[in-house]
Amino acid sequence: MKIHFVLGACTLTLGACTQDVRPLPYTPTPLPAVATQEATLSTTVVSPISHPNPLAGYTYRGPTGPRDWRTVNQEQSEGN
Q: Residue ranges under compositional bias (Polar residues) (predicted)?
């Protein structure tokens, strides 16, 4: 943990000590005119993807009420 703290402190110290090498009356480089650039149009035909319904085949299995656990175990056993 101490090494992380020391490395972080060194990074901040070195970053604060760096000098700006640009001349003082700095004018930033203008961005290109993106609005004048036209996007290339793709001529490929893409068919729509049909996804299956994730709820297809769902049947509601609501609680039927409390039952005797011995009877339920006998119904679900491998012997039946």
A: 71-80
Give whole-number Cα distances, 44 to 6, 17, 37, 47, 50, in Å. Answer: 56, 54, 21, 10, 19
Per-block average pLDDT, block size 10, for the chain (80 residues)? 88 77 71 65 72 90 86 82
The structure's pTM equals 0.25
Residue 10, SS3?
helix
pLDDT at 23: 62
Q: How far apart are CA 58 and CA 66, in angstroms?
A: 23
List all residues 6 or more positions away from 80 whose beta carbon is below 8 Å from its beta carbon.
74
When computed from its CA atoms, the radius of gyration of the chain, rounded to whole angstroms, is 35
